[in-house]
What does this fold into?
Amino acid sequence: MARSATERGTDWLARGGLRPTRQRVALAALLVGDGENRHVTAESLFAMTDHCGEKVSLATVYNTLRAFCEAGLMQEVVVDGSKSYFDTRMDDHPHFYWEDSAELTDAPADQLEISRLPQLPVGAELSRVDVVIRLKRV
It folds into this structure.
């Protein structure tokens, strides 16, 4: 029997140890309900809630996305200092950022090779390396 988007979203929240409030379940269902990974901005997710008839404020969307990140369910990908995308795919992988459409897509991780990183400052440990490859269509 196929699972519903709401069931998938509720299970996803449970994996992050988050209480399944009505708004969290609605947002989780939009993010992972079809079983696919996606990249969203707070604004694009807010627009999706409007299309499905869910009443959620933009501030709630921002706060919920941050909570999802803190729970380890999503990762934030900062493209510019003021532009963040939220990615439901949690493994380490690079991204393409299409400047003309402001779209973030996954880049093939098996084709990326980082041969060396600079020496880390004393007292620091590596958290992660984000790779965003900026593209323009020709």
Q: What stands out?
A: The mean pLDDT is 92. The radius of gyration is 17 Å. The beta strands are 39-40, 75-80, 83-87, 95-98, 103-106, 132-135.
